[in-house]
Batch of 2 targets.
Target 1
Amino acid sequence: MQDATEMKAIIASEPGGPEKLQVITRPVPTPADDQILIKVKAAGVNRPDCIQRAGNYPPPPGASDILGLEVAGEIVKVGANVTDWKVGDSAAALVSGGGYAEYCLAHAGSALEIPKGWSFTEAASMPENIFTVWHNVFQRGKLHAEETLLVHGGSSGIGLTAIQLGKAFGAKVAVTAGSDEKCQACLDAGADLAINYKTQDFVTEIKNWTNRKGVNVILDMVGGDYISKNYVVAAEEGRIVQIAFLNGGVVEADFRRLMMKRLIHTGSTLRARSDAVKADIAKELRMEVWQLLRCGLVKPQIYKCFPFEEAVKAHELMESSSHIGKIMLEL
Ligand SMILES: NC(=O)c1ccc[n+]([C@@H]2O[C@H](COP(=O)([O-])OP(=O)(O)OC[C@H]3O[C@@H](n4cnc5c(N)ncnc54)[C@H](OP(=O)(O)O)[C@@H]3O)[C@@H](O)[C@H]2O)c1
């Protein structure tokens, strides 16, 4: 059979709301020496896709303008230097763009084996969350067994992954979330404490939960007034890892606790990191985490799947923030 030369893909025609998403036709890309070409069966929808669509998160230099940061499917071509993968293999991959398309290029080092029994949709729900959580909670935040982890946005795709990984590595995990239903989902995923921030004060709840000692690691995507509050609820020598600022990043904060408690406040964005850094994270994931997926200790958390052509509905759902876990596109 002849190789396809054209493919359907989704871009934002101009910055704006979900209605700006447009299905277009593009040439099927050709893998460079260290890349693989995946025939996409499913792609994850992530909050950064919405931020990119709105015009506030441009693709890093060299990345595709096609939306989408994670895919799973069948490898149909491999570059000259790729030795770990062959045509016909199934894989899930973290990509720096290009996921909302029939074919997607991935760096071979950012591709991961699909755990036995997982569907392509389940596999595609993992890369963005698991790379982000591993790097920020474990590599930067240095979470250890017996420590406490506080996850803001506990019912997000990122949050539910952080709960499961935190528990799997022996930590006690607390979360904040915006409804009782979301809190229950976090408890079902393994959280020890879920705080509905709309009806409870997380500072008081965390002080009570930790016997006033505070938490060892905080994963924060909210920012805004949480920055000062995080300094209050962090334990001495605590680590606060910032992965987004959904409530704003330009704020007044009282930094004195940072000094008095010897806190570390750090953060990172995954997308712009080099292929080499992502390959190093993937290597650790294969060694430390993949067995947890294989044995079912870490599970996919899929809320809703949409056909590829209904990406507008997928983005509308994500921006309603009524979802719990992952939103997926299927091809
Ligand atoms: N730095 C990185 O490398 C990196 C990588 C991937 C993702 N991220 C970030 O991590 C966050 C989670 O990503 P995701 O794809 O898992 O997103 P998601 O599923 O859409 O989750 C975001 C959640 O945050 C909560 N939230 C709190 N304040 C909010 C606000 N002002 N606006 C909107 N939501 C708010 C919402 O739940 P409540 O109802 O509980 O408020 C919402 O469900 C995003 O901010 C994303 O940009 C960062």
Target 2
Amino acid sequence: MTDDTTPDRSRRAFVRAAVAAGASAALVGCLEDGTTLQAPAGVEAPSSLPDRQHAWNDALHEDRDGNVSPPEHHVFLGLSLSAEPDETARETVRTALREVEKAIAWGPDGVLFTLGYTPAYFDRFDAPLGDAVDLPEPEPILALTAESDVTVDTNDALLHLASDDGAAVLAVEQALFGDRDRLNGRSLSASLEGVFDRTARRTGFVGPGLPADRQDGLDGIPDGEPVPDEAPFFMGFRSGFRESQATEDRVTIREGPFAGGSTQHFETLELDLEVWYDESDHEQRVARLFSPAHAEREAVGEVGERLGTETGVASVADDVRDHARDEGVVGHAQKLARARDDGTPTLLRRDVNTTDDDVCGVHFVSLQREMSEFTRVREAMLGEEFGRYGLGPRQGNGILRYLRVRRWGSYLVPPRPRRALPRPDPDGEDSEADDAPKEKDGSGDG
Ligand code: HEM
């Protein structure tokens, strides 16, 4: 049976609504009736977890072509410190996070998460972040004057929770903020409540069929349900092909006290898809997102199913000026393939769709070794050089015309042993002992 009344379908719809709204403890309690989240594999976890918080790819599933499939459900919690970041608070954060890892498996069937810190967080310490971390104050890069209403993340931290099971994301959020004292059958002794206040809550989702399911009645999308059924993103195409993503190694900081960490950009984009769907056809959409050559060769398919692990944009990157001059269009991916480093992508994109505030949008998340690498690529996206061919942000300059930046933030995602309220100079002479875990892994109820 596949009708909407099956328990699975109704549970999915219920969880989806709960993730978007944030759920009460009682509600998640209901969700868990008869449901057990995947637990870590025996005593090995969580000591076997990678040092890199951002090392998700090995745990994630792959699609039929061999591309990494992102988790379906996401919650991004903006956090502000409500306590001094001293050793007591640090120990609380450390314990709370490790208790989650002991209760639920690290992976899309359990939960994946990263905790990152803003430049504003580090500003409170006397010592500077060393040269090995490139994390300047965030400065939005804007294409349109309509984007004047941009919120810059000046709070302290961002917790990104992700899972294929929305109930897992919700249960972990509640566990971390003191709304429950047991998680997946284990009792909890610490929470982030008392150390952090939740100052922003944003949600996202990604995967074939999910945007089509949720397109109804949103701001920014025309009537008539234009998003193709199988599209994983609102703009109608697959993304995140293996060859156009940086590897986790490529985005990892190599030296200094935060070696094993990464930097993270978080940007919220509102989508204005009326013109995208109503005034351009499939061929024009392919030209703007991939390249005019892809459109001509019908290389993409309805939602990108003809592409395997690569888009082939690198091979048309050099034609971009000809396309600007002769076709009046340059592709978004074509333009950005030119910003690769010696042929290698520098950003690991983990963007997701959002319907926060009933507006159709994207939370664009990317990891890179240095924020300057992100800036370089994001500036390339402006495509200012194509102005000479008459391609301003409102013309065929990739997808700029359909995007409005609304939120912008930069974070350091420290390596796992240093993710709990790190000092900028954890190896400094007067620093506390390292953040190595103090309790034994796999022991009792923590
Ligand atoms: C709504 C917003 C966006 C959508 C729908 C979108 C969509 C896409 C698609 C479909 C591709 C080609 C498939 C792939 O290789 O993944 C792509 C590639 C890419 N996008 Fe975006 N993108 C968006 C925003 C951004 C932003 C804000 C950046 C930041 C600079 C960005 C950076 C890139 C990069 C670096 C590539 C890969 C280029 C290469 O192959 O080297 N995108 N994007």
